[in-house]
Amino acid sequence: xxxxxxxxxxxxxxxxxxxxxxxxxxxxxxxxxxxxxxxxxxxxxxxxxxxxxxxxxxxxxxxxxxxxxxxxxxxxxxxxxxxxxxxxxxxxxxxxxxxxxxxxxxxxxxxxxxxxxxxxxxxxxxxxxxxxxxxxxxxxxxxxxxxxxxxxxxxxxxxxxxxxxxxxxxxxxxxxxxxxxxxxxxxxxxxxxxxxxxxxxxxxxxxxxxxxxxxxxxxxxxxxxxxxxxxxxxxxxxxxxxxxxxxxxxxxxxxxxxxxxxxxxxxxxxxxxxxxxxxxxxxxxxxxxxxxxxxxxxxxxxxxxxxxxxxxxxxxxxxxxxxxxxxxxxxxxxxxxxxxxxxxxxxxxxxxxxxxxxxxxxxxxxxxxxxxxxxxxxxxxxxxxxxxxxxxxxxxxxxxxxxxxxxxxxxxxxxxxxxxxxxxxxxxxxxxxxxxxxxxxxxxxxxxxxxxxxxxxxxxxxxxxxxxxxxxxxxxxxxxxxxxxxxxxxxxxxxxxxxxxxxxxxxxxxxxxxxxxxxxxxxxxxxxxxxxx
Length: 533
Fold this sequence. Notes:
disordered N terminus; Immunoglobulin-like; 22% helix; 27 strands; ten-stranded mixed sheet; single chain; TIM Barrel
């Protein structure tokens, strides 16, 4: 059964992925099965889970400290700990398993909005090879708070090299410095700068601040021009990225640092399989087509830890982009077996109705829109990691898990958790590193019920995430199969995020009983897999 709805732009869209695929997106070998009418009667869904049919391993769910923690980290201990608990605690919050730490390129108040700007950040570097390790103390507090609450995966990332290493002397670009803002021949200096910071944290005598960064990301959204000074940013052609990766890989190995390099941080999904002709025409070098250019180049492909990453911006419009662009991505991804894909940054910039990201929203509207994006990235793109943009936002924009009205010292230290925080937690708290996605069919309705299922790394727990986009309840009949002989799931505990619940635990239910997923809610059903001796 399919239904249609009409948006303000007059486009009528079908609910099921089957209809979308029939409109011109061929099913892919190994892609999640698409439901048909036999799985559904009215608003009842027959959802089948096959634990023996396995897909990708999940590496982490994360968010970044950029740029808010330089301000929030100066708050009172009580307020800081409350924020840290919401983000990192697996019992009081959403239990993020990865934290992205921004290495600033240096304060540039004059060009980035004045002394209260949140978009320009200190750099540890004082001069070449010299550092002030008292800097970024506020951001470092949250590094320690994440570690203390059990976070084990950390990424150090840059938006720009330090200003002294750039061609125009700023941490943003201008139009006339060529394919990148990094000075000619400075790849080695940039690599040493990054390695010096990683080594400092790795060897810090303060155990609470001793962080072994698993990944370092030297380039961010390299195919955007980054002209104008609104924030830090540095474009880089494919060859520029490869030169940086080669220098950084050499330096990391020389220093004995067990840190992987994370690239390309493509700013948009189609950049993974298509070139950006505008920049190529302007600067005379290739930008984009990262799958083919990076996975197939022996000079760089063995230096990337088997992971390529991208951002899910501007591919969330329903139906034009949400599913079709991910199917195209999946088709190209399957041409490069052995690689993992991370969705490493997202907030709402367009949204399903193409209305943009302006306007802070703490309601279930944005929570559900984002939960749907997460679902599609995990089930269509086979993403092994999913990371949000900025954990705390002071802006009137759909870019925060938590919001604050704080702007400057003396303002109230307001903490405003969005429903999005808890909906993200329906994934991050229960799908832990090493879990594996397993087959789920019967819930692939982009305007109705969406479902995905996961088996823990220890193989003794199942987590089923159900997203009900619709304005009415959905009845789900679960059928769990593929269990080894003697194994069973006796009960499932629902954790519900809705207009009234914030990741609230409800009474356990039998796995073979009908379960009602409330309208406009996200539910995670969690249960042990028990084996008879």
